[in-house]
Design goal:
Elements (H helix, E strand, L loop, with lengths): L1 E2 L3 E2 L5 E10 L4 E9 L5 E9 L3 E6 L2 E6 L7 E10 L5 H4 L3 E11 L7 E9 L1 E2 L4 E7 L2 E4 L3 E4 L6 E10 L8 E8 L14 E5 L2 E2 L2 E6 L7 E2 L3 E10 L8 E10 L2 E4 L6 E8 L7 E9 L3 H4 L5 E11 L9 E11 L13 H70 L1
Parallel strand pairs: 2-11, 13-27, 23-26
Antiparallel strand pairs: 1-3, 3-8, 4-7, 4-9, 5-8, 6-7, 9-10, 12-15, 13-14, 15-25, 16-24, 16-26, 17-18, 17-25, 19-24, 20-23, 21-22, 26-27
Subcellular location: Membrane
Keywords: Glycoprotein, Integrin, Membrane, Transmembrane, Transmembrane helix
GO molecular function, one term: integrin binding
Length: 416
């Protein structure tokens, strides 16, 4: 009975034991195996490998397995026992966990005698720290007018941060961070040299070994034509220092290339990373100086660089193989040309704004006054019309009454 390699309890939290039971004596018609493992691990399952027919039954802190087929002399049976670590206790993880195995066989003699064999095997458990790595970098933008802009600055250096978070439960001893950086571009030029690369941890530069690897291939230019929409925030030098100008333009990418270490000459940078405590994090900054960008972008509008980052433990006991690929973009950029001139006098701006507001108020007052005048005139005309109408009505009534009076007087005089 033996375990299959060192047990990394943080990776799968499973323990696999390879069990081999051999019969070197007389034929046995009954074979039983008993395994005791304590309370630090639990039984997970069994798998047959050779000469199947093994069945196992879990009991309290032990497993009993029966071999169904009789074991002849010089025959053996093989199977796997799987256990699981449910709870990781740092204080106990360095103490070995012992699994006791006991095999009993019985032959067909008149006076059967049990042949018992016992074996103890310690399990060396190791709490492997789990990693979570986040990457962040600023896209590199290149302008055809021989200007390189990184984060809207004139610097040629771009920093890519690799945030390494140790999720525990144990500390991460000194490891090696290996960066694989492609160097070749389609025309054969180098994007940057080995002296243009360095790695820092905070404000401290790490000692790194740089090795050039050439696989004899180079990236190719893609004929794909795409349109990319870019919004740039640029400093407005003719205004105040805090002012910015937003410029938006559609960029037509006509020649683009994607390069990686599988397609180009590659630089391998190996840097020692100090110990990282459990539940802590550290930040590695990879600085790249694009010193040969002017030559590269005479034929390219867009370049994507795939950087591989791998964490390696030389002893290979604390860290399982871990790798991540991070891509950075170098693309054509549009830089706005602002008209040069004197800084704006904000006092005159304020005065002009006040004058404009005063003109608006006067104009509104004029409109209101004009409206009131029109309404007053209309009301006056309506009043005059009403008064003339009343006068005409009064005159008509007066003349009608005088006619009636005259006719009545005439009748009276005739009767007399």
């Amino acid at each position: 009975m033996r375990n299959m390699g060192r047990v990394f309890v943080n990776e799968t939290k499973k323990i696999t034991l390879e069990v081999t039971i051999s019969n070197h004596q007389d034929d046995a018609f009954s074979t039983t195996a008993m395994f005791k493992f304590g309370d630090k691990i639990s039984y997970y399952g069994m798998k047959n490998i050779r000469n199947g027919g093994v069945s196992c039954l879990e009991q309290r802190e032990r497993v009993e397995c029966d071999i169904a087929n009789p074991l002849s002399k010089d025959e053996k049976v093989e199977f796997l026992l799987e256990f699981k670590v449910s709870i990781i206790v740092l204080e106990e993880i360095d103490q070995p966990i012992v699994v006791e195995g006991e095999v009993m066989t019985q032959s067909e003699e008149k006076h059967p005698k049990d042949n018992i064999r016992q074996l103890k095997i310690p399990l060396e458990l190791q709490a492997v720290p789990e990693l979570n790595v986040k990457t962040a970098s600023t896209p590199v933008k290149y302008n055809k007018e021989d200007q390189l802009s990184i984060n809207n600055s004139d610097s040629f250096v771009m920093a890519t941060d690799f945030i390494i978070h140790n999720l525990g439960p144990s500390y991460l001893p000194e490891t090696t961070a290996m960066f694989s950086i492609p160097m070749t571009v389609p025309d054969g030029n180098m994007l940057f040299a080995s002296t243009d690369i360095h790695v820092t941890r905070g404000n401290i530069s790490l000692e790194c070994d740089i090795k050039l690897e050439d696989n004899g291939t180079s990236p190719t230019i893609s004929p794909l034509t795409t349109t990319q929409k870019e919004v740039s925030t640029l400093p407005a030098e003719s205004l105040s220092k805090e002012s910015t100008a937003n410029v938006q333009r559609n960029i037509l990418v006509t020649k683009q290339a994607v390069t990686s270490c599988q397609l180009a000459t590659c630089l391998t940078v190996r840097c020692k990373v100090p110990e990282i405590a459990a539940y802590k994090q550290t930040i590695l900054s990879l600085h790249l100086n694009f010193s040969n960008a002017h030559e590269v972008f005479k034929i390219l509008d867009y370049l994507q660089i795939a950087i591989d980052m791998e964490m390696i433990n030389d002893a290979n006991t604390y860290l399982a193989p871990w790798k991540r690929t991070h891509s950075i973009r170098v693309q054509l950029s549009f830089l706005a040309d602002l008209i040069s001139g004197k800084p704006i006098n904000y006092i005159w701006v304020a005065a002009a704004s006040a004058a404009g507001a005063f003109c608006c108020i006067m104009f509104l007052w004029f409109l209101i006054w004009k409206y009131r005048c029109c309404v007053t005139k209309m009301q006056r005309e309506i009043h005059v019309i009403k008064r003339e109408s009343i006068k005409r009505r009064t005159r008509r009534q007066t003349s009608h009454e005088g006619v009636q009076y005259k006719s009545i007087g005439g009748e009276c005089s005739s009767k007399l």
